[in-house]
Every structure is written in C-alpha cells, then in structure tokens.
Amino acid sequence: MTATLNLLVAVCLGYVAFLFLVAFAAERAALRGQGGWLRSPLVYTLSLSIYCTAWTFYGAVGYAARSGLEFLTIYLGPTLVMIGWWWGLRKLVRIGRTQRVTSVADLISSRYGKSTLLAVFVTLIAVIGTTPYIALQLQSVTASFASIAQADPNAAPLEDTRQIALSVAVGLALFTILFGTRNLDANERHHGVVMAIAVEAVVKLFALMAVGVFVVWGIGGGPAQTLARIDASQMGQWQVDGMRWGGLTFLSAAAFLTLPRMFQVLVVENEDEQHLRTASWAFPLYLLLISLFVVPIAVVGLEIMPAGSNPDQFVLTVPLAQGQDTLAMLSFLGGFSSATSMVIVAAIALATMVSNHIVMPIWLNLTGGGAVMSGDVRNVVITARRLSIAGVLALGYVYYQMSGGGAALAAIGLVSFAGVAQFLPALLGGILWRGATRAGALAGLSTGFVLWVWCMLLPSFGADVVIPGTVLAEGPWGMGWLRPQALFGIAGLDPTVHAVLWSMLFNTGGFVIASLLTFPSPLERLQGAQFVNVFQHSARPQNWAGGTAQSEDLIVMAQRILGPAQAQALFQDEAQRQGLAGYLPEPTPDFLARLERELSGSVGAATAHAMVGQIMGAATVSVEDLLAVADETAQMMEYSSQLETKSEELARTARQLRAANEKLTQISVQKDAFLSQISHELRTPMTSIRAFSEILRDGGGLGSQAQSKYAGIIHDEAIRLTRLLDDLLDLSVLENGQVNLNIRTGILSAVIDHAVAATGAGHGLLKLHRRRADEEVTLETDLDRLAQVFINLIANAQKYCDAAEPELTIAVQARDGRLLVDFIDNGPGIPRQVQSVVFEKFSRVSDQKAGGAGLGLAICREIMARLDGTIAYLPGQSGAAFRVTLPLSQRMAAQ
Amino acid sequence: MGKHVLVIEDEPNIIEAISFILSRDGWRVDSHSNGHDAVEVVLAKAPDLVILDVMLPGRSGYEILTDLRARPETARLPVLMLTARGQSKDRELAERLGASRFMTKPFSNADVLEALRELVPA
C-alpha cells in the first residue's frame, strides 16, 4: 500500500481529532475535580518533552549526519539543568506559583517592579525569537508531507509545498484557539492541552524508537553490526570543537529555562513542586531514549540513501525506502506530534504575553476602563488571545516564506535559542541577586537583543536577503569592526558561538553594570526580596506569600481604611524597625499581625484578617474587589462618624437646653421663693398693724398707756414696711444694673464717720475701734453707696453682736493696689454652714428676730460689685468679720 | 376659768396683739416663740387649742403640726394655722397635714375669735 497525500491528510485529521478528544476529556475531568491523574508527575514530565520539537525529531538526525555527536549538546543543556540545578528550578516554580506568574515576560516584569516597559520588551523578543522556531515546525511538517507524497510514484508531483504549510498553520491555529482559549484561568493553566501534549510525547518517543529499532535490527543487523557501521562512518572522525560544544550546551540550557513554551509547561502549568523531583530524572531519561537511535539512523541513512538526500528527513525516508509504509506513517505522526505540540504551547505562551502585556494595556488605555473584571473585559481578553495566536502563527508562516524553507532545521533552532537566551541574565539575576534592578534588566536585554539581531537573526536569512552581502563581509559603511559575524575584528569563531558569546557577554555586562549603578525603587526592592527569598517567604506557617507586590497592596488598602496619614506612619515606623527606612516594609508575620491589629480597630478582627489574608494568600477575590470593599467601608465609616458628630452635637444642644431649662426652673423656683419671702416680709408687719389698728378702732376700755403703746407699734411696723420696700426697690435697681453712680472724690475716714453717725453707733452700747491715720485715704467712688454698705455692716454688728461689751473694730489697709476695710466684732460670729449664704436675699443668720428682712448684705454685695469692689465674710476672726475691698484709684496709688 | 390657748409665733408684736384680743375674750393665753421645742411645750402645757405660725425659727409649723398629729394625746387637738404666705398650696398642705383651721396674715381679729369659738365651744 502506498501512502497517498489524501490518506496522509485523513490520518492527520484523525490524529488531531483524537488529540482533541484527549484534551476534551482531560478538561472535563479537571472541571469535575477528577483530574487527579492529570496532575501526576508523569504527565508533567511528558509535557516537558515539548522541548523535543520537530527539530529534535527530524533535525537531530540531520544534525548528526552533518556534524556528528554535536547534536547531543541540545540534550545536554536541559539534562544538566534538570539534574544539576534542581534547586534553581524549584525556586523558579515556587516564585511562579506564589507570584502567580503567567509567563516569562510576567515574571521578569513582576520582579523588576511590575515594569510595563520590560514586559512589552520581553514579549517582543519572545515573539521575534519564537517566530523562526514556529517556521521551523511548519517547514518540517511540510517537508515530511512532501517526503511521503514524493515516495508515491503515482501521485502528481507536489505543486506547492507552501499550500501545505499554510494549511498546517491554519489548522494549528484553530486547534490552539479551541483549546488554549476555551476559558480564562487566573493561573493560565490548560489541563486539556497539557494532557494532549503528554500523549504526543508518548507518540513521538514511540515513533522515533520504532524507527530506531527497525534501523538497528531490521537494516543494521543488530547492535554490534550497527556499532561497527558507525565506527566505519565519518561519524567517528568528527572533531569535537570544544568551544562550540560548550557554547551550544550553554545555549540549550539557557533556552530550556527561557523559551516561552518551556516556561509555560515548566512553571506556569506546574501543579505541584514535587513533580520536579520526578522530572529531574525522568526527563533526562526521556531525552536519552529519544536520542538513543539518532546516530544509528543517521549513519544507516547516509549509507543507504542516495547521495544528496536531505538527512533531516531520514527518520521518514529510510522506512519509506525500505517499503515500511506503516512505520513511515508512524514516524510521520511522531514528527507531526513534535511540531504540533510545540506550536500549540508556544502559541499559547506567546498569546498570553501579547494579550496581557500589549493588547490589554492598550485596550484599557483606549477605553479608559479601570481594573474592573466584567464579562465584557473577559471577552476582550479572549478575543485578544485568539487574535494573538493567529498572529503568532501568521508570523511563523511569513518567516517560513521569507527564509525560503531551505535552511537546515538545526540552524533555525539555534537562532531561536540564542534569541530567548537573552532573557537569562535578567531571569537568573532576578531570582538570585537582590541588587538587580529594572534599569539593569532593560540595559542587558536591549544590548543582548541588538547584538543577537545583528549577529545572528539577520545573517540567518542569508546574504542579500535582509542585509547586503557586502555588509556581512565588510561591515556597515565599511566599518569592519561591526561585521555581524566578526565583531570587533574577532574573526574565525563559529558564527553561532560568536553571536552567543558577544550577545550574552554584553547582555550580562550591561545587566550587572546598570544594576550596580542604579538604585531599585521600593517596589523593585520588595519584589526582589520576594523573589530571591521566595523559600523563606513562602515557608511561613500561614503561607502568606501570594500575590504580587503585597506591601504595596497592603499600604493601599491600609490607607483606605486607616486614612493616609495613619497608614503611612504605620508603614514608615515598621520599615524603620526592619531597617528599611524610606522603603516599604517587608510583609513579615510580625508586621502582618501588627497591621491586622491596626485594621481590626476599624473593620473588626475577622475582616482585617480576611483582608490581609486575601492580599497575602492565594486570592480568589481580586485586590480590586477588596479595595472596593475597603472604599465602601471607609465611606460608611465616614458617614457613621458624621452621624456620630451630629448626634454628639444634638446631645450637646440637648444638654445645653436641659441646663437652660434647669436654670429657668431654678430661676422660677427662686422667683416663687422670693415672692413668697416678700409676701411673708410684707404681711408680717401688716398683721401687727391691722391687729392693733382693729384693737384701737374697737376701743373698749383701753388704757391711754396701752393706746399709745399700740400706736407706737403700728408706727414702727409702718416704718419697717417702708424700709423693706425701699430695700427691695434698691436691690432691684442694683441687680438690674440701672443704678446711677455718683462718683466723687472723698476721704475714707469721712465716709466711715458718716456711717457711724447714721447708725448712732458712736453713742450706743457698741464700742468702736478705729485707726484714723489709716483711714486718711482719698477715694474716688460713689461715696453715698459706700456709706450705705458701711451703715449696713455697723448696723448688723449692733443687731447681732450679743457680747456683754460689744465692740466693733474697723481696720483699714492697702494691699496689692486695693484698699481693704475690715469690720470685725467680738460677737459669736456667723456659723460656718451659713457663711456662704449670708449675702443671699432673705437669709438670716440667727433665729432671733432682729427686724431686718434679710436684704442688707445682698444689697451690700450688689453695691460693691457696682463699685468694682467686693464684700466677703472673713472667717477665722474672733467674731463676725466682713471685708470690703475697693480699688485704689490711680491718684491714690500715686500718693 | 377660760379655755387655754397656746400661741406659737416668733413676731413679738403679733403675739402681743393676739394675746390682747384673746385675753379680752376670756381665753387664757400662753405663747412660745420658736419651733425647736414647740411640740414639747404643747405636750407640757396641754392647751385646749394651738395657734401655730408656719414660718418659725428652728422648725416650720408644718413639721410641728405633723408631729402633733402623730401623737395620740395631740392627734385631735384643735390647731389654727396662721401664715404670712397666702398661697393656695400652703392652705392645701395645712389641711392635708390636719390643721383644724387655716388663716392668712393679716387677719381680722373678729375672724380669729370666731374661728376659735367654733373650734373650742365653751
């Protein structure tokens, strides 16, 4: 049976349909949560085999046929990384998981302070570097089609291989779109795709080994004879170029880490760090198996195939030549698997980068959309992904067209390797060296990229395609030191080694120097610490190390809850404590606990813990959502604090009203009491007057002595009434401030003399003690009102001092610019408990009726207040003692 | 011998006036001028009637009345209350406390005599 092109297409479609089913089943299982087997270390290891692309499948044999064992360098690099740098890989995977990194561009950008510029730059380099690789896959699939089709003598000669390449590109784009963008996973994981490529890994390994077994035992006559053939071939005579071996091993090791598709399966799709443990031996084993028969196939192929056959197709053409159509078909499927799995994963990885770092930022800028994850945005993201996938494959197709499909597969592969290897310094530096800065990453990447383009990419198209042959040979504008393949005049190096050497040297140099010369921003520092110390950070008991730039998120959140000033003070203080003054503090457990305490004061402990946890842990709620909650909380708090202020104001007003009301009530009570008092004071004399006047009116044998006595009582009581009314009016005038003062200048002694005369104290029982010399003080006041006060005080002494020999001492002294006049008698004094009320209206000190209405001292107090003086009771004297204080006039003070 | 009346009042002139009027009408008049020991004086002198002022030094007439009404020997003793505070609430209070009669100052002599005759029929 001869394989026809139609059969080939049918087989391809059937195979793709099978993969589709596998992927679909895996997705369903993952959705139902039954994907335990999806997350086995074996699947992870097999998915890593996308490292082995069509280049490996077909190209390795071609490589071996052309350059002997050198093809091994391509496997040596990844093997060394997997075995020897297990620790570093684990770190990379841990960072990827804790920081929820979605691509190599995301990792580098995130490490250097979420730099958009870096993300865009890395994405562009990745696209440019991967495009030749995708072209390589298209080329190898197309070539394999052609090989099988040409083996059919009945078939019409293949008119246009480009038609095939286009169909393959479109088909792969569709498959990738179908499975790579079915849903949006926050972690960019694709269970279905991973399962499909694991199946393809088995297919390609099986196919290549089947061909190998056929070659060794079916053609070569067993291992011993095959080894003899190998010895006899040119293979044994290839000189090992140490520099090239070293360079290529380094290059493949670097590419293993930095290729976007490798990063995708190695880091992004990784389900469990422990899978690395298995992969570290299983993947090298896979590489060993897949390379086991490369040399025998190459040697046998060179022997039995006609001269000029493309050794890149030996895997396919040798079985065909031997009439092993089924084996050839298997081999074709192996190659097809290699190509499709690579293209699918590469396209997904690149599409993630392009849509996340280029399309979405532009779209968000154009639409002015905030960080709102609505369904609308999801649609935009998915559309961007799909267009990016189509774009990536279109670019690969265009490159394939441009390069003419003629260049050796291995050469194209190396161009890609060297391109993405430019990420290495920024990547490794980022996870190993805290001093690495964004400026350093940019400097290294840009110089490396320029040198790679100049020394490797452009010359790879061949002379006169992009750059003229003269430039290649003599340098631009005749500047020989800029010759693409002999920079600085160092000629004679292998072009690949030359390009890798210079680009990596300048890349690393630029990275280190610029990093040393520049200072990292706080966010870079923070991220740097997170990346470099990822094991310490993520090993915390509460597992708080998730999310990017937590400290920044924390301070933004804290500001919204605590208010900017308090939050900043807290963070500054913590940074000071951590010895990071001027930077954001690192989110240590202590700090997180402290922050939680602070926040819980505002939002409660549970909410505070949840908020900090959401930022620090693997968040299912976005930071934007949290901030929205925080905003609302802050608004509510502000509103409630406004309410609180208002209710405080109301309470204060109520208090004031209550106080005013109490005062009014008190005044009302006082008024009632006052009226009651007045009534009593008026009615009492009137009672006597009425009673005696009735007695006198009725006559009835009243003696003349009694008559005159009763008339006397009526007279006295009438005078008492008049005096009471006078006092009341006087007090009322004084209290209302309506009194007209008659300010005159006089001598104190004269005022006292007047008072003594008015009370008749000089002639009565009361003995007066005065020092006239002290009394020769000039006053400028209302002398009559002052005399009224003195009269009151002297009269009180007359009334209340019940000593056997009553005495009143009037002492005068000047002190602190004031004049003090004391009236001290030798009576019993005023009991302590009533001293404070003697100046109140109607207060009486003794039980004995002394004729007064209790207004005298009240009037005295009012008078002294009008005269800018005071009157007070002087406790602690021998008897009742009152002190009158007056201001000394300026004139008096001058005396 | 006429009925015995005790006047508890702090204004000497009023005591003199009441004493004169009642003596002339045939009453035997005693007086006391402060509130502290008024209840003891009432008990000691056991009058047929008491004229009690409200505003007294020491204790108010209301307190004295309350004490008198609380004692069995004086619970039914006729008490005429006199007050210079002529508000209706004073009258109500006096009646509630058990005053036999309540009069405001100044009073008519005839009214006092009439009230006394009613309270203590000869």
From TrEMBL, chain A:
Its main location: membrane. Residues 636-670 form a coiled coil. Residues 677-890 form the Histidine kinase domain. GO terms for molecular function: phosphorelay sensor kinase activity; transmembrane transporter activity. Keywords: Coiled coil, Kinase, Membrane, Phosphoprotein, Transferase, Transmembrane, Transmembrane helix, Two-component regulatory system. This is histidine kinase. Pfam families: HATPase_c, HisKA. SMART domains: HATPase_c (SM00387), HisKA (SM00388). Belongs to the sodium:solute symporter (SSF) (TC 2.A.21) family. GO terms for cellular component: membrane. It is a multi-pass membrane protein. The keyword rRNA processing does not apply. CDD domains: HATPase, HisKA, SLC5sbd. The lineage of its organism: Bacteria, Pseudomonadati, Pseudomonadota, Alphaproteobacteria, Rhodobacterales. It is found in: Membrane. Its EC number is 2.7.13.3. InterPro entries: HATPase_C_sf, HATPase_dom, His_kinase_dom, HisK_dim/P_dom, HisK_dim/P_sf, Na/Glc_symporter_sf, Na/solute_symporter, Sensor_HK_Regulatory. It catalyses: ATP + protein L-histidine = ADP + protein N-phospho-L-histidine.
From TrEMBL, chain B:
Keywords: DNA-binding, Phosphoprotein, Transcription, Transcription regulation, Two-component regulatory system. The modification 4-aspartylphosphate is found at residue 53. InterPro entries: Bact_response_regulator (IPR050595), CheY-like_superfamily (IPR011006), Sig_transdc_resp-reg_receiver (IPR001789). One of its GO terms (molecular function) is DNA binding. It comes from the Bacteria. One of its GO terms (biological process) is phosphorelay signal transduction system. This is Response regulator receiver domain-containing protein. Pfam families: Response_reg. The keyword Zinc-finger does not apply. It comes from Lutimaribacter pacificus. Residues 4-120 form the Response regulatory domain. The keyword Iron does not apply.
